[in-house]
Amino acid sequence: MGQRIARRHADRGVTLYNHQDYINALIEFENAYKRLSKNEDVFAVLNYMCLVYMELGRYHDVLFCAKKQSMVSEQLQSCVLQAEATFNMARAYERLGEYRTSIALCNRCFNTGNPPDISPLAGYTHLCLGNNYFGLSDVKNCFKHYDITSHVARILCDAVLECRVYMGLGQMFMALQDNVTSLQNYVRASEIARQFTKDHPCAKYQRRVSVEIAVICSRLGRLGEALEMCEEAMKQAIAHGDRLRAYPRYQSAYAIAVETGDRKCQLDVLSGMALCAFGAQDLEQAVEINEKVLTLSKELESKLDMLTCHRRLCDLYLYLDSPEVSCVHGFHVRQLLRDLQLYCGVCAEIIGEKDEKVRPLPCYHIIHERCLVHLYRPTSSTSLPMQRRRPCPTCRHRMSMNPVSDIE
After folding, report:
1. Which of 79, 115, 240, 291 shows its CA 20 to 30 Å from the CA of 125?
2. How far is it, in rounded angstroms, from Cα 115 to Cα 80?
3. pLDDT digits (tens, 9 = 90+) for 345-384
4. Domain residue spans in the chain?
5. Where is the RING-type domain (predicted)?
């Protein structure tokens, strides 16, 4: 009798979750968890609780449930379930900004469960790795894992996974100042998200993508489109109780990010506040906020954010007539550029200083799109059909064909 009641609670919880009523869904799952005795059912309910806590931004609770899942999987002696529990922990640590811990857990997920290369678990684990490497500003590995995820999503016809890949690529190209390619990827993500029905649990991606498109439109000077999309996303977010995207003010956004422990979100909000302070010509306030951004980006080991922050501080101290301090930040800019290898291997110019299209090669090094033509030139003046083409100028990867041939 008790088990039947528990399963009814679980079924109601699933229905409420699918209708995005996360608070009541959580109540039902908690009631089911207290009554269930069969380990397989307990694991499934804990998995749904992890999903609900992720939606609510309660990432420490996700860790707590995932650790319970790990203990249940040990009792069942199931490597597959152990891998799923490990993946849930990895996702939580990613949102908390513990990128290296999350990467280690993702690798453990592959080693423990040994999932097939083409499987949902493998696809979402590669996506998590891509997000973590983006957080660590490891451009090459970020593109590599997004590429693998995209391959898995296409084979499995997983629209949600494909949508999230395009969202990840959108943020990556935006960080590299390739706003046109970023917009293209976000538009593709938006087209996929629009296919989800209103009650679909992943319909939220449409309003999240709308916010990102608004940011890019504002960068491209299309302010009318940016305002329109931002207002629409705000209305939808408030209507669906999506607190993580319903930001009426930067201050309230920062308070929500602190409450949820989402340090990457805190970083984004503080960066926006710094830009607003600079736009209002409150230079001292801009310096103070940028120093906070720099501290947080160092904690997260996000070198791209550190680079952007040092550039802003370099300019700010010039405005404040402190050339010595400005030179210090300029030195850090050059050092970070060397660490990140953000140089085009063909023309040797810096990538990310201005809005310009870039292309990742099959080896995942990036060059300017305008420099692709130089890789088509043969390495000799002979007209032999087997002559070698120029390899990737960064890694000198030896191959018999032009490195851009796979992309084209």
Report:
1. 240
2. 8
3. 888 888 877 788 998 888 888 888 888 887 776 655 555 5
4. 158-246, 265-340, 346-408
5. 344-396
